[in-house]
Amino acid sequence: MAENSHEKTLSALGIAQPDQVAPLFAELLSKANAALQSARSAELFEQFRVQWLGRKSGVLTLVTDNWLKAASKDLKPAVGQALNKFKAELEAAMEAQRAAIESGPESAVSAKDRVDLSLPGVVRPVGSRHLIRQVFQEIEDIFVSIGFSVVEGPEIETPYYNFEALNIPEFHPVRDDMDTFYVEAQLDGSAKTLPGSLLLRTHTSPVQIRTMEERQPPVRVIVPGKVYRRDNPDATHSFMFHQIEGLAVDHDITFCDFTGTIEYFVKNFFGPGVKTRFRPSYFPFTEPSVEFDVSCIFCGGSGTAASGQTCGKCKGAGWIELFGAGMVDPAVYGFVNYDAKKVSGFAFGMGMDRLAMLKYGIDDIQAFFQNDVRFLKQFS
Ligand code: DAH
Question: What number does the ligand 1 atom closest to the CA of 177 have?
Answer without folding.
Answer: 14
